[in-house]
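Our consortium's second objective concerns turning raw sequence data into structural hypotheses that experimental partners can test. To show how far this objective has progressed, the report includes one record in full. It was chosen at random from the queue rather than selected for favorable results. The single chain below, 186 residues long, was entered without modification.
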Amino acid sequence: MKRLIVITLALLMMTPVAYAKQIGSVTLPDSLMAGKDKLLLNGAGLRKKLFIKVYAGGLYLKQKETDPLKIMATDEPMAIRMHFIYNGVSSKKLIDGWNKGFKNGTGGNIEPIKPEINQFNAFFTDEAKKNDIYDIIYIPGQGISVYIKGKLKGTIPGPAFKKAVFSIWLGDKPADKKLKKGMLGK
């Protein structure tokens, strides 16, 4: 009996534990679902523009990982959650940000994924308001799905596009270096 308790405790200590995380004025959940897979909060941070807190962003993975190249290359379910703190980010500003991120993440070579970028940008028609939640979820074999305020806007297939999307936050030239560091749990 004593041995069983010791083994159980040892297994529990080795199991990754995820906790909800307070970022700015919002709390990101400790997990999200990607299809049938439960994803754990890998890390989180604030997206800032100058001194303005725009959104709290979280990266969700099946298991903890700190290597951005490995995350972007892997064909496993993953997600980014953006919980807006700032009230009033126009769709134009969002799309301009995505386009800059795609250019940075592909080394300027966006032509191979230009149709996917256009489809992705078309999902962002409304202004992002305080407490809006945007989820960008990748599921292998399906693609990148965009949920805005819990409603599916659409899904775009392709691993090359998935890598480009996640490079916005995790690439060599991320939208926000401190946010990247936070999402990687550093």
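The partners drew two points from this record. The radius of gyration is 17 Å. Residues 3-18 have pLDDT under 50 and may be disordered. Both points have been shared with the crystallography group to help prioritize constructs.
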